[in-house]
Amino acid sequence: MFLDQTGLSCRWLLAVLGIQMFIDYEDRIPEGCPAIVVSNHRSVIDPIVLTAGVGRTLRFASHHYMGQVPLLREIVTQFGAFPFDEPQHRPQQFFKQATQLLKQRQMVGIFPEGATPMLQQTQPNVVGTFQRGFAHLALRSRVSDLAVLPVAIATLEEQTLPSAIPLRLLGIFDPSEPLFNQPGWHPVILYRRIQILIGRPYWITPRLQRQYQGKQARKVVEDLTHYCHREIANLLPQSYQ
């Protein structure tokens, strides 16, 4: 399997943090083509984990507040993230930046569950509802040889650390996020042992791109979204048997 410098750096960082990582189905990772990598999401270090699992640079669409908080902004951008813009410009900016990266034959990482499972401590084997932005991106970008790759991050052992970050403080950096308008603290989940399970890629063919119009568009988007959600949900139980 090909590993680039960012992938190697992320694997090294996980080792320094004492996190053991196991990878299954590496042969499913597409080689030499652009890809949208989608995954479940429960920890702030998931971008590093996913990059280490795939083994190459992933350009992440990260939450808006991560680009506003000092130090956190430097960390996420160091690992290839491009934080969302203000709410009124968010969809346009996301599609423009992500499409440009895909046309450059890069890999874009997206967490379709959004910030909810990361802020509301969900169970490791539960996958929340997927937002459909990644499916629209895949079908709208008109990029050839594009794959959508579902990846499951399964925690075999983890620890919840005390947090010093109140949710309302994050609301200062992103007042548009309703999750920050509540009491409580931002949970910090630190993995100890994780298993990365690579799903079967979903190839965006010219036929699918042609179907992304009119009444057919909604069904094509739903099919792709459900496929990735189902693939990840089915992979997770393999780690908890």
Automatic annotation (TrEMBL):
GO molecular function: 1-acylglycerol-3-phosphate O-acyltransferase activity
Classification via InterPro entries: Plipid/glycerol_acylTrfase
Record's keyword terms, sorted: Acyltransferase, Transferase
Name assigned to this protein: Phospholipid/glycerol acyltransferase domain-containing protein
GO terms (BP aspect): phosphatidic acid biosynthetic process
Positions of the Phospholipid/glycerol acyltransferase domain: 35-156
Regions annotated as coiled coil: none
Pfam entry (one): Acyltransferase
